[in-house]
Amino acid sequence: MSTQANIDTIRRFKVGTMNVEVYPSRESMGAAAARATAEAMTQLALSQDMMGVIFATGASQLATLDALTKIDGLPWSKVSGFHLDEYVALPIEHLASFRGYLRKNLTDKVPIGTFNEVDGTAADLDEVCRSYAEKLRAANPQLCLLGIGENGHLAFNDPPVADFNDPLDVKVVKLDEACRIQQTAEGWFKTANDVPERAVTLTIPTMLRVPKLIVSVPGTRKAGIMRRSLTEEISTACPATILRTHPDVTIYLDNDSASELADFLPSY
Ligand SMILES: N[C@@H]1[C@@H](O)[C@H](O)[C@@H](COP(=O)(O)O)O[C@@H]1O
Question: Residues in domain Glucosamine/galactosamine-6-phosphate isomerase (predicted)?
Fold first, then answer.
């Protein structure tokens, strides 16, 4: 009998309008998410001089970004890049800085047109949010890469602060305790106390406005939240449930993160 870990085919299913694709490994998941991103960028480049693309960070994005940066011939010079979130007051040199992560894993590797960084160390964070929101509105991003946190967060919209009708585009949030603990599990910080208490984040409506969402969620630690994201009532108790209302979203999983989705995947 086969187990989820040794299933080596690609399995696809739909939950409402949402497409879910399950790959045999983290690497094959990343390659598939990268191919979809590359196709979307190539299409957009046919009709746009500059395209806004929002990139995600975290361990879940490493395979996707690695594969994406190795694809030849992409129209990087036409990309105006953005990111989802950044810790407040964390220096760029810190391992967990999302700006540092994106330099290392993206912008140092490809000839991107422009990249708009969120400076969480700036003195006036209201101004950081206001000007980032303005840049996002002007760029009108057509493509957004996303991850899902173990607590269901999208960017840093943790359950206690997530608002599906948020009037703001970008805001400063207080991080949930569960979220701060989860950041240590991946080794970004030594203890939960080392995790900054606040972050700048795009809000949920800002992400959902983007017409195409490519969501990479590999790994065993995400199995429980993937089940909740696909089966629970849509609510801010699990912010990722809102993705089920988006008209063009594909979730890329590996066998590990799909391990609690047996009823969607009858071959288990
Ligand atoms: N706030 C970031 C998000 O931008 C990311 O999409 C999500 C998944 O991260 P990871 O892949 O590290 O689990 O949570 C991180 O903490």
Answer: 25-246
